[in-house]
Design a protein that fits this description.
Layout: H1 9-20, H2 22-28, H3 41-55, H4 59-73, H5 102-116, H6 127-141, H7 175-183, H8 189-196, E1 203-205, H9 210-213, H10 228-237, E2 247-249, H11 261-267, H12 274-281, H13 283-294, H14 296-310
Antiparallel strand pairs: 1-2
Helix pairs in contact: 1-2, 3-5, 3-6, 4-5, 4-6, 5-6, 8-14, 11-13, 12-13, 13-14
Length: 331
């Protein structure tokens, strides 16, 4: 998920509902939402995801990060997919979103086209729901758990770059900062730790962690919480004069598998970001890391629960949204 990196009035009101009355939002979403209008929507989306995955593995972390970045700014409403116009700089062009791989956007746009190619489904399924379905599919494709996706989101009516700043976790965050940001979206510490495990997939650029391997502090140029061998490897891969084009696997052991090795890496001091490693070095979260490092099933259950809760954040219904004809542009 990389980093995962103010609100318009409608989002404030809806996100308050999702935080304080989560059951109300859950009631608006249903796993069989399209049973009458587009009963085959899940298989249509899955086929597109499978085709895209065969072209490039990047599809998997790209879609996963796209979903997270979407939900954490305006809520899960596909606002991150909107393209900028001469009159509006959209979310996707904020510096925190420039590292989102194009394959994530392309997957949603192609899936939307495939859905709309079915006459009975045309203009019936939101881009936000397609992104939620595609996210579940890429998790499964990489060996993660399958789960029922709640559906019924509408697409958002706003996408502003100015709303992104401060709404995505940074690689430098400590546990308190992580907990505070996730709590603002109705997600608890366990949810935060589970969602952080998305860093078991994908890559990051050197500038996101170079401070840990070269100039951590005057006494310790290298972050002492980093495994020394791992730190040396990172120094070899990432020159001191940071080349922004160099990408490093976030999970050095199983970078293409969705698994609990992420937590085992933390136990060995091999968390790439400060915000990863702190989950093990802080005693308040260490127990969860240790449990999930040794019990994959318990972790996967927690992850599914966290993803379901994440998918309820800032959901648009009624007049607060619509179904976009083109995922990249407002109707």
């Amino acid at each position: 998920m990389g980093h995962l990196q103010v609100f318009i009035v409608s989002f404030l009101s809806i996100s308050c509902v999702s935080i304080f009355m989560p059951n109300l939002v859950a009631a608006q979403l249903k796993t069989n939402f399209y049973a009458q209008t587009c009963p085959n929507v899940e298989s249509i989306v899955r086929n597109v995801v499978n085709q895209k995955f065969k072209q490039t593995f990047v599809t998997i972390p790209a879609v996963l990060r796209l979903f997270f970045h979407d939900c954490f700014v305006e809520g899960c409403d596909a606002s991150v997919i909107i393209s900028s116009t001469s009159g509006n700089t959209a979310e996707k062009d904020h510096p925190d979103n420039l590292s989102l791989a194009g394959d994530g956007f392309d997957t949603v746009i192609k899936a939307k086209a495939a859905v709309d190619a079915i006459p009975s489904c045309k203009n019936k399924v939101s881009c936000a729901d397609i992104l939620a379905l595609a996210t579940r599919d890429v998790i499964q494709l990489s060996g993660g758990p399958g789960y029922a996706v709640e559906l019924g989101r509408l697409d958002g009516l706003a996408s502003k770059s100015s709303n992104v700043g401060g709404n995505l976790p940074k690689p430098t965050f400590n546990l308190d900062q992580l907990n505070t940001m996730f709590a603002s979206h109705g997600l608890n510490q366990a949810d935060m730790i589970a969602l952080s495990a998305a860093h078991t997939l994908g890559f990051s650029h050197c500038d996101q962690f170079s401070n840990r391997i070269f100039n951590f502090s005057p006494k310790n140029p290298v972050d002492p919480s980093l495994n020394k061998t791992y730190a040396a490897q990172l120094q070899q891969m990432c020159p001191k004069n940071v080349d922004p084009r160099i990408a490093i696997n976030m999970d050095p052991i199983t970078p293409r598998a969705f698994d609990n090795v992420y937590f085992q890496n933390l136990q060995k001091g091999m968390g790439l970001f400060t915000s990863d490693q702190v989950l093990f070095t802080d005693q308040r979260s260490k127990g969860t890391v240790d449990l999930w490092a040794s019990n994959s099933k318990v972790f996967q259950t927690a992850f599914v629960n966290a993803m379901t809760k994440l998918g309820r954040v800032g959901v648009k219904t009624g007049k607060n949204g619509n179904i976009r004809i083109d995922c990249g542009a407002f109707n």
